[in-house]
Design a protein that fits this description.
11 helices; 19 strands; Chloramphenicol Acetyltransferase; 3 domains; about 425 residues; OB fold (Dihydrolipoamide Acetyltransferase, E2P); alpha+beta; about 25% strand; single chain
Length: about 425
């Protein structure tokens, strides 16, 4: 009977791999075309992998927790010739089947969550207060600047083996010439941290870490100002559908950027790209990270028209099952960190964006009133814009935030 591979699909434009969360079938099970057989986790969402034709599961070559690249064979289905012809499924020859089902052979050191660091299970069994031993030189104290900028090919090869980045070596002292980090410094550091309690970083956490490292390569500046929240609170209280507070800011930012799209420009070489559409992301806290679903053309729809879509994408993000239509392509993001009681923060824009607007918690602040000649309590919140300073300056952002504040003080126009 023909053998049909179950392949890891391309689950998004920038997604190169996914981690297996759940096996929904086992060898010997009968499956139908388009049946879900795996649940996988990317750095953006939890998605399902389906089969291209019906048949019997011959083998499963992956296990839960394993990270699999796009295009890899995860299992094999035995199907009838009629089923293959009906669905147009791709088949495998005998050699490909043998290669896909051959047992894996260890090829070298395990990554950071294996041989060199304790696993989560070992952490539970061990003592968090166990004494730590150093490996001599290379203690984790701040590195000299000169040495941190040069790594030999040998050190870089070991870093690749252990999935370690240069940022991870910020606390390694270089004992080589001019403070360079030697292979001995590197191995001493690995030996030193080997006894620390640890857990594997999830795909979401690794994605956030990678994004922040790429963002930090640019000159990011922040500017903030207070806004009056009473108009929003009153408008929402009287609105029959009770729009989310973050949606007010999303809509106000969209209208302000439609007037000044250069504030969300993106620099490439000697050019600054201007956004074609006002597609805005909204930061949603999820387990071990943040997801940013993107709503399209926010400036072209009213607040009322956006309520249902906003509620839908936020729920999808929290469930980690985001529709691909809402993934990527945003020009700016709104992050409401006020929901965690924070009054001020410096949010970081995504590497693909140059602007993020943060919203702080509402608090009553005494403000002087010339009318009654005394201080009166006013409900205010801080908004903070973090931006790529290569693209815009403080004055541009100041004017943009003034416009955002004006729209928020007139929510009936949203």
């Amino acid at each position: 009977m023909p053998s049909v591979p179950i392949l890891m699909p391309q689950l998004g434009e920038s997604i190169a791999e996914a981690s297996i969360m759940l096996l929904l079938v086992k060898p010997g099970d009968t499956v139908q075309e388009d049946q879900e057989v795996f649940e996988v986790e990317t750095n953006k969402a939890v998605m399902a992998v389906t089969v291209s034709c019906g048949g019997v599961v011959k083998s499963i070559s992956v296990c839960e927790g394993e990270t699999v690249p796009v295009g890899a064979v995860m299992g094999i289905i035995e199907a009838t010739q009629e089923e293959v012809e009906r669905t147009g499924a791709t088949t495998m020859d005998a050699a490909a089947v043998a290669a896909a089902t051959a047992p894996a052979v260890p090829t070298g050191p395990v990554a950071m969550d294996g041989a060199h660091f304790r696993t989560e299970g070992e952490y539970r069994e061990g003592s968090a207060t166990a004494p730590m031993e150093t490996g001599g030189r290379g203690l984790p104290v701040p590195a000299r600047i000169r040495g941190a900028h040069y790594l030999s090919p040998r050190v870089k090869a070991r870093m690749d083996e252990l999935s370690i980045t240069e940022a991870d070596l910020a606390y390694v002292i270089g004992t080589g010439a001019n403070g360079r980090i030697t292979i001995e410094d590197f191995e001493n550091f690995i030996s030193y941290v080997d006894g620390w309690p640890s857990r594997p970083a999830s795909p979401m956490r690794r994605s956030v870490a990678g994004s922040m490292q790429r963002t930090w390569r640019r000159p990011i500046a922040s500017a903030g100002r207070p806004i009056y929240m009473a108009p929003i609170i009153l408008h929402r209280r009287n609105h029959p559908r009770k729009p989310g507070v973050t949606l007010y800011f999303l809509r106000a930012l969209a209208l302000a950027l439609a007037e000044a799209p250069e504030c969300a420009g993106y620099m490439v070489g000697g050019r600054i790209l201007t956004p074609r559409n006002i597609d805005l992301g909204v930061a949603v806290q999820v387990a071990d990270g943040v997801m940013v679903p993107v709503m399209r053309r926010v400036n072209e729809y009213t607040l009322d028209e956006l309520v249902d879509e906003y509620n839908k994408v936020v729920k999808q993000a929290r469930d980690r099952k985001l529709d691909p239509a809402y993934v990527g392509g945003g020009i700016a993001t709104v992050s409401n960190f006020g929901g965690f009681g924070l009054t001020f923060a410096s949010p970081m824009p995504l590497p693909s964006e140059s602007l993020i607007l943060g919203v702080g918690a509402v608090r009553k602040t005494p403000v002087w009133s010339d009318e009654v000649e005394c201080f009166i309590p006013v409900e205010q919140a801080e908004i903070v814009a973090s931006f790529d300073h290569r693209v815009v300056d403080g004055g541009d952002i100041g004017r943009l935030m003034q416009r955002v504040a004006w729209f928020l003080e007139h929510p009936e126009l949203l």
